[in-house]
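re: that complex we talked abt at group meeting.

here r the seqs, copy pasted straight from the sheet so there may be weird spacing, ignore it
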Amino acid sequence: MIEFATLLERLAFTPSRNMKLTLLREYFSMAPDPDRGYALAAMAGSLSFSAAKPAMLRALAMERTDPELFAWSYDYVGDLAETVALIWKPERKEHDTPVAPGLADVVHTLERLPKADVPNVVRKWLDACDTSSRYALLKLITGSLRVGASARLAKTALAEMASVAPDDVEEVWHGLEAPYKELFAWVEGKGPKPDAKDAPVFRPPMLAQPLENVDLTAFDPAEWRAEWKWDGIRVQLVSTPQGERVYTRTAEDIGKAFPDILAILQDLGSHVVLDGELLVVQEGVVAPFADLQKRLNRKSPTASMLRDMPAGIRLYDILFEDGEDLRSLPFDIRRQRLESWYARLKPPRMVLSELISFRNFEDLATLRENARSEGIEGLMLKKADSPYVPGRPRGPWWKWKREPLTVDAVVMYAQRGHGKRSSFYSDYTFGLWRTVEEKRELVPIGKAYSGFTDEELKFLDKWVRDHTTKRFGPVREVAQGLVLEIAFDAAQYSKRHKSGVALRFPRVARIRRDKPAQEADDLETFIRAFL
Amino acid sequence: MDWLELKPEGLFCAPGAFYIDPLQPVGHAVITHGHSDHARPGHQHVTATPETLAIMRLRMGEDQAGQTQQALPYGEVISVGNVKIWLAPAGHVLGSAQIVMEYRGERAVVSGDYKRAPDPTCVPFEVVPCDLFVTEATFGLPVFRLPDPAHEIAKLLHDVRLFPERTHVVGCYALGKCQRLIALLRESGYHAPLWLHGALLPMCSLYESFGIPLGELRSATAAKKGEMRGGIVLAPPSAIADRWARRLPEPVVCLASGWMHVRQRAKARGVELPVVISDHADWDALLETCQATGAKEIWVTHGREDALIHALSRKQIRGRALRLIGYEDDEEAAEQEAAGQDASV
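got the structure back, here u go
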């Protein structure tokens, strides 16, 4: 437990991805089976307890302190598990050196323990643990473990240990269960790669490179296929005799949020792996990304969400059919297989991604610029003979995004960044003008923390420090004097923001030192232009 | 006890006509230790340990550290008016002292700031039995049961080994914490040169002149960036995450403070590696010390007095909150300074 607690503590405070990976690798190579397997499960969110309720923790703490002291302490610390972990004064009998429980002990014990016995066991554990282990233990058993590392990061650390790509770990992951002994054996070179067999596992997807610095005139249009690039969530639908899954392209299983899609897959009963775009489609029209976001944010959707924001799939590709691996076949052949599968099964709420016919790339460029409809981000170019290769190979697939939209906004607040940027004011809240009761004022419409060079960051940081008017903790309010050209992919109405609008993927395109703040854009003009 | 009273200038001993750690310039000040909230400039006559007087002269200049200075080593008894006084070690920083006063058969002890944990850079706290004990309560909440400093140093050194390509920059207060950290690192067998922010070096020299060896110290401000890679840099808390730290190769931001015991405090400061080391008594030490003095009455100068007074009352000890404004906790003051200012030194 001590090693796990130390890892959690360090991960929670470390912003750097590389350092987190080092910490994870160190832990996984040092901790024994099955402890490390349960730690991995805890990080991946596939371990959950609710044996201990907050009221039980409070009652335990009260046995060792009085209500006033506890209340003052809880007030100060602000987190129940942390308060109990810190305030707990272990009672140890003389000559008694209790051993803190291992992670696996905790998991196995709680699986079998009758509810009435939980307080007694937890009390014994608390007495045997040090402060940080108590914290980890309490967070774990109350089911509120927040780890400063994603499941993906933990799998990346394992992949590094095995010198394979993270996707290779993903490919076996969903066929395995805690405590993942065969996974660790493989990673450490002591066992074979676990065999997924018919389990509905994730297959690493093929991704496209952005079309930049590429000479299109050198391409033969006859060798290329074009499709719309949709602004949804890229997903992989997996259906095998052992079950159905909806995976994101980072291998996250989001099936619970989309029972409508799972139900369709189950009805079809086809043994298949499909690649497509998840969208909210209302009466044949693709809804804004914000609606999809609402579905994503819910662990399980309400009946009214399922009715008003039904999910649909735009099919791009087929990877497996009836257990046959199609990934090495050329794109055109896979497309034929996809079309005939589609024609045969007529899956509801799925449509084929349209193949756009074009004579030359100038035609395509015009199409791309004119396509401003909801949900289209640009074009995809796929080589007709390209096999389905996991990862992001350069050459076979290109994404050709629309030019971003831009707006001139005024910097209003700045905040320090994290990690390497912790000494820089690198997060900027920007706003547009509006007139309220004949007074012109700025209203914030978004926040950007990328898009600038190191030199530009130095300039922005200095500008913020020299023009600070107020401080609110880590946030500085600045004089209304600097205009930023903000690039963004789309604008949406939003009830969450004071201005009523929200930007998708805003970033700093240029610093407009030449432009007086008064001449930045108005909210009204912005709404007319983009919404 | 009616011969110690609270005045706007601070705690006043009427029969001796002197103040203890006064907040404003006075005629006669008896000073517990050299931190700037306790040792303030501009008094006429100052009584303190020789170490504290040296610290005051270094920090505020000869002319501000009292027009006349009376060096009083630990344990040496003098009479001021009708009051007998002497100084007892407080274990807080070099030269820190409790003020022991006797008058008409009663004994009062003003502890200043103190700790009970071992510290290789100062004389350990000495329990002086008394009728009235005046205590601090910086960590006056039962959540502050602070870990063994050796454990925290081991944590820091483990991280230094794990990330040899990074530079660990540890925020620490210039007087006391800095030298204690260095001494603890040396005790743990870390003998590589340590890199110090310019603001920390003079106090280290002073400690060494009092016979406390700190090993090889180098100026971080004058160093080439690459030289410090993989090393440990010490700097005032205000500098660790600000422009000064940009001279360091890939810094890992650490902060040595008792406050780091609570996650939210560490998070709010953007600290990557909290080092929970404090120069103040933790909760258990506060309670234990108050009881050990045998005092029937406890006064609490500053800190979280509510919880401490409540806990004392359960042990039939009467507590009184003085609520002295102006005794910022040094660590907290340093935090506020860091949050509010840009130290570009």
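couple things i noticed - Chain A has a mean pLDDT of 90. Chain A touches chain B through 38 residues (CB under 8 Å).
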